[in-house]
Write a structure and sequence with these properties.
9-stranded mixed sheet, binds 5'-O-[hydroxy(phenylacetyl)phosphoryl]adenosine, 432 residues, alpha/beta, GMP Synthetase, Chain A, domain 3, 4-stranded mixed sheet
Length: 432
């Protein structure tokens, strides 16, 4: 068990972490130069060679990689190992264009599962736990990643995958699941269903490990209260391995990035300039231990802040804030930048559940924003005559947050489709 809470790594001094990163980065850059012609060409075009990279302080000299590069090099163009050494493929859930595929050697899988095991242990997991994994299995990394991590910790692992909510609840009750792993939107749905089916008090859950999509602090509180658990955030992306790139500890104030495997930078998304810690910007990762699919300076499009304040859990690895949205999720409505997460915060502050849909359209050359919000059954039956008034209150609260008018439509309980994986919150009809 000790293997996965590794204080000598997770609580190492900054000097020690930097020394690992320097050594591994230099090796990785040389490896990519030697084995990935696509990236070597990029380096040559930018006038940089492996000899220019002596440590983390030289990272900024390397060119960025973006999702477009991954699509261009699809499927095998960024492989650094012969196919014979690769044992697994995972893929992103992209709905348009070519999918992004990532490759793993057995060693890559081992390190990825270690990262997920660290996350489970940081959420209090031990070999006494029953870990209920209802992230999707298959090409999506959520199920396989947390499944592997759970095995490493020694938990009894339930590879449930997503869907069939009644069966999920039945297994949770019968087998006494103690740790729940799924998207936060599915956790909210499970909580709602457990209450509805009268099984909430039969659950033995103590912790949840929720990620793969943006979720607000208000949503965390709601899930924690409804399920009587502590809800931990977990972050990751297929290109860099999957879940477990970073994870929350008991302090719940940001996610520790596994800095022995990934170097994180924050950049200005418009200029590419590296920004100091504490500044909001786009998160960029360099994977320094990956064998099959090592990405250097990969732009995630996720907007967040890095902090290095001392953490009460003792871990010293840098923390990233909850992503505030993706730069490509940001909606520009009437020229104003709107993140779906801002809308969620307002709704939850006003006591609405996290079941909502954002509809953006263009009518007579002007953008329109509508937010359909589901009411709880109690609120619905108690306030039938006051719906217009309640809609007006929400319009005002949204205006104060976003600075623009949003039409609000309160809809009946259960009328917005529930998600079993990542929730689709936004319908942008301008793009259809
Ligand atoms: O979502 C990996 C994952 C699975 C993470 C399970 C956590 C739990 P992708 O499908 O490649 O991989 O999507 C990656 O999802 O760039 C973020 O925009 C978003 N994302 C992931 N975790 C979080 C999180 C998985 N905790 C993309 N908060 C990332 C907000 C998240 N957004």
């Amino acid at each position: 068990m000790e293997r996965y809470y590794q204080p000598e790594i997770e609580c190492a001094s900054r000097e020690q972490i930097l020394s690992w990163q320097n050594e591994r980065l230099v090796k990785q850059v040389r490896n990519v130069w030697d084995h990935v012609p696509y990236y070597r060409k990029k380096m040559e075009e930018n006038g940089v060679s492996p000899d220019d990279i002596k440590g983390v302080e030289d990272l900024h000299k390397l060119p960025f990689l973006t999702k477009d590069d991954l699509r261009e090099a699809y499927p095998y163009g960024l492989l650094a190992k012969p196919l014979g050494d690769c044992v697994r493929i995972q893929s992103t859930s992209g709905t348009t264009g070519k999918r992004v595929v990532a490759f793993y050697t057995q060693h890559d899988l081992d390190l990825w599962e270690d990262c997920c095991a660290r996350a489970i242990m940081a959420a209090g997991g031990t070999n006494e736990d029953v870990c209920h994994v209802c992230y999707g299995y298959g090409l999506f990394t959520g199920g396989p990643g947390l499944n592997g991590g759970s095995h490493r910790v020694g938990c009894l692992t339930l590879p449930m995958s997503s869907g069939n909510t009644e069966r999920q609840l039945q297994f949770m009750v019968d087998l006494g699941s103690t740790i729940l792993c799924c998207t936060p939107s599915y956790a909210a749905y499970l909580a709602e269903s457990a209450i509805e089916h009268g099984v909430r008090d039969k659950l033995k859950l103590k912790a949840g490990i929720f990620g793969a999509e943006a979720w607000s602090e208000e949503m965390r509180q709601d899930i924690q209260n409804k399920l009587g658990i502590k809800a931990y955030d977990i972050y990751g992306l297929t290109e860099i391995s999957g879940p477990g790139v970073s994870f929350e500890c008991s302090e719940q104030t940001g996610m520790h990035i596994n800095e022995d495997h990934f170097i994180a930078e924050i950049i200005d998304p418009n200029t590419g300039e590296v920004l100091p810690d504490g500044t909001k910007g786009e998160l960029v990762f360099t994977s320094i231990t990956k064998e099959a699919f090592p990405l250097l300076r990969y732009r995630t499009r996720d907007i967040c802040v890095l902090t290095r304040e001392k953490c009460s859990c003792g871990r010293t690895h840098v923390k990233m804030s909850k992503p505030m949205g993706r730069s490509d999720d940001m909606l520009i409505i009437k020229g104003v930048n709107v993140f779906p997460s801002q809308i969620e915060t307002v709704l939850m502050e006003q006591g609405y559940p996290a079941n909502y849909q954002i509809i953006v359209d263009r009518v007579n050359h002007s953008d329109t924003l509508e937010v359909q919000v589901e009411m709880t059954p109690e609120r619905f039956s108690d306030n039938l005559g006051k719906i217009t008034e309640m809609e007006k209150e929400l319009v005002a609260a949204l205006k104060a947050m976003l600075g623009i008018y949003a039409k609000v439509t309160l809809v009946a309980p259960k009328s917005i489709t529930r998600s079993e994986g990542k929730a689709v919150r936004v319908i942008d009809k301008r793009k259809i």
